[in-house]
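STRUCTURE REQUEST FORM
Protein name: DUF3606 domain-containing protein
Source organism: Pedobacter chinensis
Requested output: structure tokens
Priority: standard
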Amino acid sequence: MSDNKQKQDGREDSKVDLNDASEVAYAAKQAGVTSAQYKELAKASGSSSRAKIAEYIKSNAKA
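Status: completed
Returned output:
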């Protein structure tokens, strides 16, 4: 059975694969940080969930 790329349910987009450089780079660009910073922020947040990392960045932003 082949993977149907036309049928997506969104689960793929809810988390960032921190071992995939292009995925990290994309998420980092969206967050306005470097890839290395994004990985550190993900580690500090304790999650690979895009929403949780974004929430962590927002709550720990230096004003």
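Reviewer notes: Residues 17-59 form one domain. The helical segments are 11-14, 21-31, 35-45, 50-59.
Form closed.
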